[in-house]
């Protein structure tokens, strides 16, 4: 999260950095998401991180990178799923290239018309 600089970096740059870092983490330390939701302490930390990402996605919407006619919650739910899929199903790609695929898919589906 810190490396992505979600609050300071230009939105497109921060989005790619965030996605690339998360894919790398998911590949290095794979975690079953249902286990993350079961532990209260982990869930609280995860919820705080999700809040930061939602704030970032609101900024992305305000700056015109994401469509304003879709709920932030939809973007916030879709992005982790895309990152998870890329980390699992695109092992032949570097984390940076997998992030290219995720960001392109995310923005073409949620970007301005």
Task: Write a structural description.
The chain has 113 residues and is mainly alpha-helical. Helix content is 72%, strand content 0%. It contains 5 helices and no strands. The longest helix has 23 residues, at 40-62. The radius of gyration is 14 Å and the shape is globular. The chain starts with 10 loop residues before the first helix and ends with a helix.
Question: Low-confidence parts lasting 5 or more residues at pLDDT below 50?
Answer: none
Main sheet? none
Structural class: mainly alpha
What is the percent of helical residues?
Answer: over 70%
The rough form would be described as: globular
**Total number of β-strand segments?**
0
The fraction of residues assigned to DSSP E strands is: under 5%
Q: From the alpha carbons, calculate the radius of gyration and give it in angstroms.
A: 14 Å
Distance between the termini: 29 Å
Order of helix and strand elements from N to C terminus:
HHHHH
Average predicted local confidence, pLDDT: 87
Total helical segments: 5
Summarize the structure.
This protein is mainly alpha-helical. It is built from five helices and no strands.
Question: How are the secondary structure elements laid out?
Answer:
Blueprint: H1 11-28, H2 33-38, H3 40-62, H4 72-89, H5 95-110
Helix pairs in contact: 1-4, 1-5, 3-4, 4-5
Features of the shown structure:
113 residues; mainly alpha; 72% helix; globular
